[in-house]
Amino acid sequence: MGKFFRGTAAFATAAAAVVALSGSAEAKPAADEWDGCPYGAVCIYGEGVDPRNNPNPTHIFWSYGAHNLSNQFGHHWVYNNQYGGATASLCNGYNGTNCTETIGEGWGVYRDLTPVNSVKLNRP
User: Which domain holds residue 22?
Assistant: First the structure.
């Protein structure tokens, strides 16, 4: 009789774990791509490009921290499609130094990237 209760308790614990895991998966926010910029990323579009007409970012950044740029001149759209309050900064120095502007979650800016040498993705 003791083995029956232990087996039933183990089954109930396993079932509760499956329910808990499936519940957390359902709690994730729905993916929302914005003109080719994947949900959770920061994207830069080509010089003078309107993302609505050409939804193909030239740069897609996924990881937190600094991302150095090269040969980015003129005006570009930069879109922060991260979630959970994460921000992105435009920095005049390499390696995320001398940051001059912060872009909030879900916002895009049209900026001259000539003086910008890095984009930094910031944890919330």
Answer: 1-29
